[in-house]
Amino acid sequence: MALVASVVVFVADDLSGSELSLSLFYLVPVAAATWFVGRRAGLALSLVCTGGWLAAYWLNGRYFSHPAILFWNVIVELGVYVSLALTLSLVQRGVAVELGLVAELKETYGRLDRELEQVRDIQRQLLPVEPPQIPGHRIALHYVTSTRAGGDYYDFFALPGGRFGLLIADASGHGTPAAVVMAMTRALVHAAPEALESPVRLLATLNRELVHSILRGQFVTACYVTLDPANGRLEYALAGHNPPYLVRAGSGEAEAFENLTGPPLGIMEGASFSRHASVLRPGDLLALYTDGITEAPRPDGALFGDDRLRDFLVDHRESEPEVIRDRLLAEIEAHTGPGAPADDRTLVLVQAGPRAATPARSRAEAGAAQQRLGSRR
Question: C-alpha angle 252/256/257, rounded to 5°?
């Protein structure tokens, strides 16, 4: 096709006469041969086109007054064509290198994405698949990460005497670094089962280990609660975490857990934590959450907020936990708009039912639930 184009330009150049030079049109077949065939083809066609230009000028029978002028014009024509062929060949080589880098980068991103998916799958296996069956209580969960993996962590523990432990934590940052800290926190928790009976002892143990295990600037906020299903007694301690809400069924009052002391875990050695107590009465709702819930941003930057969460829980306190969870998530999505969350979000809702069973029967049911929880692990 480039050769045919050269012939067409030659014929047009010859018919136009020497007064009207069509030498620039020879650039088209030179460029086509270089780009689609190669540099050698482009250089070869540069010679052909230079000869065509010279032949067309010669056939017209008009010559320059001095032979040197014709010689230099031939050199200029050949230089322009050769320069175009060499330039296009360099551009083509650069494009090929760039396409190769793009393909390599795409492959690297694909491999990294597959590795992150494996991290996500491993992390999901570290979390309870479903909440335990606590006698007389209903539990609803929600867990989602802002990236493939995240730093939020929740867990449940069967304790002696029919009690249960509920832990929620949030590692600083996002993505894989936060997921690693989350996995370390879980490993430390399960390595110290004797500390699970006391919220203060558990947080102190975690802090002591994390101070020497995580990087400077990293930290973990946490809240650990123990629940006795027989009488609803709650004992808890917080380490810089968002205070959970305890919504009273009758009055509709929302009590935030006290957080008078207790810095985030992993920041300072010898940190102290305070134990507090409360009672989860029949119909009451306990909501544990991470800051991805309250700090969910609107497109203009406005956050969902603690007040809005508290008011929502109060208004829907009589609904079942699953219904409250689903409606709250819809409310947050309406606030933020569709798309991936800006931060990891974890929500644990515990609602106490009427305690109609006798204490002995409650203890028996709690023991059975403890065995089921242990078998799942």
Answer: 135
Tell me the angle at which helices 39-59 and 27-36 cross, rounded to the nearest 10 degrees: 160
Unique residue bearing structure tokens 């780009």:
35
Radius of gyration of the chain (CA): 37
Q: How confident is the model at residue 361 (pLDDT cuts 50, 70, 90)?
A: very low
For residues 168 and 141, give the distance between their C-alpha atoms in angstroms, rounded to a whole number. 11
* Residues 179 and 248: beta-carbon distance below 8 Å: no
SS3 251: coil
Distance CA 180, CA 115 (A): 14
CB-based contact 206:220 (threshold 8 Å): yes
What does pTM read for this prediction?
Answer: 0.70
Q: Which two tokens stand for residue 86?
A: 């060499």
pLDDT at 368 over 80: no
State which H helix or E strand residue 76 sits in.
Answer: helix 67-126
Indicate the domain borders of the chain: 2-99, 127-376
Q: Which helix (H) or strand (E) holds 370?
A: helix 359-376
Which residue type sits at 306?
D
Q: Which of 241, 325, 277 is nearest to 163 (CA)?
A: 277
The predicted-structure confidence for 266-298, as pLDDT tens digits, reads as follows 999 989 999 999 999 999 999 999 999 999 999
Q: pLDDT tens for residues 11-41?
A: 887 777 655 567 778 888 888 988 898 889 8
Residue type, 52: G
Please give the Cα distance from 293 to 306 (Å, whole number).
9
Instruction: Kindly report, residue by residue over 206-263, the tens digit of the pLDDT.
Output: 999 999 999 988 999 999 999 999 999 999 999 999 999 999 998 889 999 887 668 9
Give the Cα separation of 90 and 30 in Å (integer). Answer: 14
Helix (H, G, I), strand (E, B) or coil at 61: coil
Can you spell out the DSSP letters for 206-247? HHHHHTTTS-TT--EEEEEEEEETTTTEEEEEEEBPPPPEEE
127-376: CATH architecture: 4-Layer Sandwich (3.60)
User: In sequence order, what E strands does the chain have?
Assistant: 137-144, 152-158, 164-171, 220-228, 233-239, 245-247, 254-256, 276-279, 285-289, 345-352
Query: Is residue 351 a contact partner of residue 284, using CB atoms and an 8 Å limit?
Result: yes
